[in-house]
Amino acid sequence: MNKQQWVEQIQQVLAEIDALPEPAVAQRESLQQLLISLEQQLMDGATDSDYSMLENIELIGVEIEAEHPVVSMMLRNLVATMNAMGV
């Protein structure tokens, strides 16, 4: 997966997060910050990302899974793909 595909996948997740209802505001803001930071790292050419950042993205995905399964699945797929590619 090239850098542009990563950015597109992150943008898709951000769009889904923007659509979350008000009760998920805290998770939405945290996720947005993490994903924007991850996107910036990718755009700057970083080949490895902070493991804790990916772990936090995954943990938030678990927290919102029951109420927002689509976003949770997208987050897990993003993290799994990045881990598989060694990012």
Account of the protein in words:
There is one protein chain. The chain has 87 residues and is mainly α. The protein has one domain (3-84). The protein has 4 helices and no strands. Helix 1 (3-18) runs antiparallel to helix 2, helix 1 (3-18) runs antiparallel to helix 4 (69-84) and helix 2 (25-43) runs antiparallel to helix 3 (51-63). The longest helix has 19 residues, at 25-43. The chain is globular, with a radius of gyration of 12 Å. The protein starts with a helix and ends with a helix. The mean pLDDT is 79. This is DUF4404 family protein. Pfam families: DUF4404. It comes from Sinobacterium norvegicum.
Structural class: mainly alpha
Runs in which pLDDT lies below 50 for 5 or more consecutive residues are none
Number of structurally distinct domains: 1
> In angstroms, what is the radius of gyration?
12 Å
Number of helices: 4
Summarize the SSE layout with pairings.
Elements: H1 3-18, H2 25-43, H3 51-63, H4 69-84
Helix pairs in contact: 1-2, 1-4, 2-3, 3-4
Pfam family, one: DUF4404
Organism: Sinobacterium norvegicum
Protein name: DUF4404 family protein
What are its keywords?
mainly alpha; 87 residues; 74% helix; globular
